[in-house]
Amino acid sequence: MAVTRAERMTWGQEEMWTLWQGYPAAPELLLSRVEIFDSTVEVENLVKALDFVRWRHEGLRTVYGLSPRGEPTQYVRDDLVPAVEIVPVADDEVEGESARQKARMKGDLFSLTEEAPFRAVIVTAPTRGHVLVLVMHHITADHNAIQLLIAEIKEFLAGGAARLPAAYQPTDMAAEECSSAGRQRSERSLERAAQIFAQGPQAVFPGTVASTEPRYLEASLFSHRAFDHADRVAQRMRIWQPSLWLAIFTVVLSAASGQRRCLFEIIVSNRIDRRRLGIVGHLSSTTPVLLEMSAGQSFRELTKEVVRASLDVVKYGDSARLQYWDLKDAQMRKRGLEYRNQVTFNYVQESNAKSRSKAHRVIRRRALAECRGLDFYVDPGTSEIFVRSDRLLAGDPQDFLEEMERVLESLVEGDVNADAVAADHLAKLNLEKPPGTTMCDGNWVRPDLVRAVLCEHPAVGSVDLVDGDRRTSGLRVRARVNRRDVTEEDLRRYMASRMLEDPGLVVPDIAVVTDL
């Protein structure tokens, strides 16, 4: 094996490597693209263009495995030249043969340790031109990367290959991530994530649903008018359009749930860094954002807060997905949560609706299924707003879409003052304090009920309330136990299990005092 360069895998590649080892036949790990070229393009030149991008991007001639020290490693091999099959057909067979070739290539498992992570077939017809069918493994490309490859193939065919800037390689990315500066950025991102998780609410939508009813509900709104309105409002308020969507969604979510605090997870594209615009072989990351809905807050003030949070997303999006998931799991266990506070927001920055393939939609919705909370997805390319919710946590997602439309309409009508738009929604959060309750994680809870339930634990003798700490849950207790082996984490898990029975409960900060 002629290895030209070896480097530790990027964080994104390591994530895909882990998934491939556990589920090598997963269709979600294979991406495809079908591109039509007219008959003026010579097939030989199209083959040369494919070879050009293969040499230009190391990720297309890379295999993966473990180094002698057991580290996930990418090996660049100059001798790795995948065959490009040329299939001549009659004019009326182009579509059918292209579909068959794509299905065949996606049906054959990739061996990431031995073969190139991309396959290509050219279906050619006498007068219909040529169809390039590409199938790539997700470890080496995402949909943006495939779009980039097609653009570079067309640039090569037009004679402009020399004008392309040098490509940023996955091995360069990996070296940067493993550098001292890269590790420091990752540590800062994880520290920031830990702070946000510690302050996040415990639940978005407390509630139950009959087991016979569908677990997940989803709804889509396709509206060019809504996106035109959003563009006008964003320009008038001088904010980034994704920030506007997130602000509107936060208003509706807060009003519907009664939460003053919403915790989002946002998908961050690696392409926010200009150096990485031309990379093939990297993936996006995830980062949390906490938005606070304070009493009397105006919509304009909320958008400013969202803009600040959006900048934090760019600033703190440098952690590995696997590290992030481990951190989130640890934080959830520490606070005794049951993943009831997750809202995923994904804004797709694509303007070409044709690039949205059915495969992408399947991948996207399959990925969203991992979130037990509520998923919010905005795609200006197809003018789609998509909401998917867990019936255990939320109501009909169609209600969210309709309410978002109403807020957006009120923002765009005439010269409406944006400060007054959300007044009705925010007023719902300014409810009078119910007797015997305290505000905890955006909900009114009864401390006496929390204390009574905790006292039902067989090892707990008594529970005292102490001053709250708004940096965490807002409710702190001191529990006296009669066993040395009972820890704070044991009691938090106990309260989390009881939350599933009574969504009005919370998991307080618990200090354990042993009485023996």
TrEMBL record:
Gene3D superfamilies: Chloramphenicol acetyltransferase-like domain (3.30.559.10), Nonribosomal peptide synthetase, condensation domain (3.30.559.30). SUPFAM superfamilies: CoA-dependent acyltransferases (SSF52777). It comes from the Bacteria. Residues 13-318 form the Condensation domain. PANTHER family: FATTY ACID SYNTHASE (PTHR45527:SF1), NONRIBOSOMAL PEPTIDE SYNTHETASE (PTHR45527). This is Condensation domain-containing protein.
